[in-house]
Design a protein that fits this description.
Layout: E1 16-17, E2 20-21, H1 22-32, H2 36-44, H3 51-59, H4 66-69, H5 75-84, H6 88-93, H7 97-111
Antiparallel strand pairs: 1-2
Length: 115
């Protein structure tokens, strides 16, 4: 895997796609995975059954490394979703409205910090 960060720890200045680096696009996408409704949409479009897409989700596991996770706005739900998406059963279960509602509630409660 090509390192999306330069040796100085900043986003590398590789080729741009619509004005953004590949890392910036992947960061935006991986953060969207924290949204259970978006996961349901991906499943309803049958993307979570596509072996190429599943491989891409495996590739995105590099965000679990601290040097990349530090760029995530909501690391806990983002990384949890990425972990769950590695499981075939979850990729099927996320089609269920009950599963989506449960995940949405868990995500909401995990974002509230006690004072």
């Amino acid at each position: 895997m090509a390192d999306p960060l330069s040796s100085s720890g900043t986003v590398s200045s590789g080729p741009l796609y619509g004005g953004f680096t590949r890392f910036e696009l992947e960061l935006e996408f991986v953060q969207a995975l924290a949204n259970p409704y978006y996961l349901n949409h991906l499943a309803s479009q049958k993307l979570l059954q596509d072996p190429t897409f599943v491989e891409y989700l495996k590739y995105l596991q590099y965000f679990t490394q601290a040097e990349y996770a530090r760029y995530l706005f909501y690391p806990a739900p983002t990384l949890k979703a990425l972990e769950l998406l590695q499981q075939e059963k979850f990729r099927q279960d996320i089609l269920s409205p009950d599963m989506v509602a449960r995940l949405a509630e868990e995500t909401l409660w995990s974002s509230i910090k006690p004072r």
